[in-house]
Design brief:
By secondary structure, the chain is mainly β. It has one helix and 33 strands. Strand 30 and strand 31 (about 375-380) form a beta hairpin. This is S9 family peptidase.
Length: about 425
């Protein structure tokens, strides 16, 4: 039986997660009273599963969106974790996970809790919480029999490495734990993390570039950083990193322009990419406004751009031959949001946003219309809209999406999105 693509659509404000068949939008399953930690996002796991953190209940949930066809329920596992969840990642096998904590709805950092999880422990799913240091750390898990949990800290910038097994054996009551190894970073403004299981490298975005490191036993070895300047374009920095498992590329959006958040319509945005196997790097202008997260489809990379003069979905055709660069193939208009960011105010406080999702196993791209309960579904190969899906809740703050295609290889990117 050929199973259709499925969309996980979360309204983290209303507390609802639904599983929709694509492209018709038929609802196959729903969770109510579940508030996804939007910053940590969804994490692809082996077996066409996905994980997320319920920020209200303090639980990591593992979902099996194709469970009905396999004789099971939607929620496969629920494990207690510390919240508010900031980042979520797994080891390449998808068995051992880590969840860091961040600000939540607070103005300054306050939590130093890290949760490590073993989904297949001797007594079943197991989780342990320990204390590290306050901040908003990113996280990656470098593979091996005992994965290395690596936190990317700010102020001071550093990579802090812990053996997963040692953390899992920590006594109860959230004791403080020192890293097995520290690797200083030259910047105190890190934001954005990725991990390439094929090479074991981790990547951390910062103002001076993308810092790289690899595992050597229980230690980290720094490698030369990747500059943001590329393709004859310079300035700005990326705040987000994403691995493209199909073409083995690293992607980001480099933001430049005025530092004042209220001048966000004047921000510049470049798609930045790096070929993991050849080392080639490039940049391409996307247009002004707010661009943040991106989505990886089978033959395209998709960006949602928000601007007072009109929002759009920008599609970049992926390179198909050695030496070929990505290129913009379509700019598709998106209907305006009534609560959209406006000139003279910040683009993230009390405004509506857009979530975007795609699967490396197909051509569909989904984009939300925050506050309107709408999800616009596009076919990137045809560069046209397929349909508009409507949800029973408004998708305030943009909601959050994950698009799954059976066997799509998305687990090669083991960081929550």
């Amino acid at each position: 039986m050929t199973l259709p693509p499925r969309l996980l659509a979360a309204d983290q404000v209303a507390g609802r997660v639904s599983v929709l068949d694509l492209p018709d939008g038929r609802e196959r399953a729903v969770l109510t009273g579940r508030h996804l930690a939007e910053h940590a996002g969804f994490l692809a796991l082996p077996g066409d599963r996905a994980a997320f953190v319920d920020d209200r209940a303090g639980e990591l949930l593992v979902l099996s969106p194709y469970a009905a066809e396999r004789g099971g329920g939607l929620v496969e596992t629920a494990v207690p974790v510390a919240v508010p969840a900031e980042h979520l990642a797994a080891d390449p096998a998808g068995r051992r996970l880590a969840v860091t904590t961040g600000l939540g709805r607070n103005w300054s950092t306050w939590s130093d809790l890290l949760t490590v999880v073993d989904l297949d422990g001797p007594r079943g799913p197991d989780a342990v919480r320990v204390r590290t240091r306050t901040g908003e750390p990113g996280v990656t898990l470098l593979g091996g029999p005992d994965p290395l949990v690596v936190l990317r800290h700010r102020e001071p910038g550093e990579l802090a490495a812990y053996r997963h097994g040692r953390l899992l054996a920590t006594p109860a009551a959230c004791p403080p734990v020192e890293p097995d190894h520290r690797l200083p970073l030259p910047d105190d403004d890190g934001h954005g993390d990725a991990h390439d299981p094929a090479t074991g490298r981790l990547f951390a975005a910062a103002g001076s570039g993308v810092h790289r490191a690899r595992r050597d036993g229980d230690r980290l070895v720094a490698e030369p950083p990747l500059p943001w300047a590329a393709g004859g374009r310079s300035g700005g920095r990326g705040y987000y990193l994403r691995l493209d498992p199909v073409r083995r590329m690293l992607w980001s959006c480099v933001r430049g322009g005025p530092a004042d958040p209220e001048s966000w319509p004047e921000w510049t945005n470049d798609a930045w990419w790096h070929r993991l196997d050849t080392g080639a790097t490039g940049r391409l202008d996307l247009g002004p406004g707010l661009v943040f997260r991106l989505a990886v489809a089978a033959r395209h990379t998709a960006f949602a751009r928000v601007h007072p003069d009109g929002d759009e979905l920008v599609l970049l055709a992926a390179p198909t031959a050695p030496g070929e660069d990505p290129r913009i193939t379509a700019r598709l208009p998106l209907p305006a949001m009534s609560g959209a960011p406006r000139r003279g105010s910040t683009p993230w406080d009390g405004v509506q946003r857009r979530a975007i999702a795609a699967s490396p196993g197909g051509s569909l791209v989904a984009v939300t219309r925050g506050g309107h309960g709408e999800i616009h579904l596009f076919d990137a190969d045809r560069a046209e809209q397929v349909t508009t899906l409507r949800t029973p809740t408004p998708l305030d703050e943009g909601g959050h999406l994950a698009l799954l295609t059976p066997g799509d290889g998305a687990t090669a990117d083991p960081v929550g999105r």
